[in-house]
Amino acid sequence: MDTLEHAPIDLVGAHRDAGIQEMLDQLDRELVGLAPVKTRIREIAALLLVDEVRRKAGLSGGKPSLHMCFTGPPGTGKTTVAQRMGEILHRLGHVRKGHLVTVTRDDLVGQYIGHTAPKTKEVLKRAMGGVLFIDEAYYLYRPENERDYGQEAIEILLQVMENQRDDIVVILAGYKDRMDSFFRSNAGMSSRIAHHVDFPDYTVDELMAIAGLMLKDRDYRFAPAADAAFREYLERRIGQPHFANARSVRNALDRMRLRHANRLFAAPGPLTRRDLMEIAEADIRASRVFAAKPEAGDTA
User: Is the dihedral of CA 140, 141, 146, 150 positive or negative?
Assistant: First the structure.
């Protein structure tokens, strides 16, 4: 017995064989910043890996509950992290498939008596063996409406989260203050969430890095003066309504590409490869964000 307890176990090798570091490196490449989020993901991966090694060593303990809550503003990478988490859970044997099913209230809650249960159960059936990501989960609970069927969906979710937690991971997502209120009103749901992960807003420098990655992925780049113009664009846009971090950056770049294409189409003479690649300062400064009174919405 003493010999078995002192037998060497290669935890680093197990980590390598499972391909976890490769997946964490991919997450680093895909997502700029979010250091606290990535730290928590590494911690969860370490827990699962050690549990797997413990099982192989004949030690008990059972699978941990891994239902999570992702809080933060839109466009901060919550869905991407959920997808990567599903893959890690699958690699480490916590779930059978590791796929991600993303839903909102409308996918779970019916409009009449007898409609909610089959809708919710069908979603859970699709998500079984993987990760169910419920965006803006607080909309499930509407106490001001006595005829609302959201509570029925919550009760079904609670039952599955408790009884089948070894075959599905549920991730609730939304703004932090609203999720906090949701949990205060739903003690059963709060008690089943083992991990709370907060996704902070990106800084201007991080948003610039995100823009650079998006442009590179599409074989675009900023012309020298355009880089400074886009930074100024971000500094203005962050303070306007409906800013959604990386999502707003993507929308802005799409509109700048539109202006770039129209500018090239109107230009006389032949074009060069450089012309096709470079977003000019004029393509950025044509945005309504630089107007004295920009229009409401996700302006670009």
Answer: positive
User: pLDDT tens across 232-279, in order?
Assistant: 999 999 989 899 999 999 999 999 999 999 999 998 889 999 999 999
- Residue tagged 């001001």 (tokens): 144
Q: Which of 60, 79, 93 lies closest to 167, judged by CA?
A: 93
- Read off the pLDDT of residues 11-30 as tens digits, 9 standing for 90 and up: 666 556 667 778 788 888 88
Parallel, antiparallel or unpaired: strands 221-222 and 195-198: unpaired
Reference 298, options 228, 222, 246; nearest CA is 246
CA-CA distance, 213 to 199, in Å (whole number)? 20
pLDDT digits (tens, 9 = 90+) for 194-232: 899 999 999 999 999 999 999 999 999 999 999 999 999
Q: Are 256 and 275 in contact (CB under 8 A)?
A: no
| pLDDT at residue number 153 | 93
Question: Hey, is 143 helix, strand or coil?
Answer: coil
Alpha-carbon distances, residue 184 vs 73, 177, 178, 271, 289 (angstroms): 20, 11, 10, 61, 39
Residues 39 and 24: their CA atoms lie apart, in Å, by: 10
Spatial distance between the Cα atoms of 133 and 283, rounded to a whole number of angstroms: 37
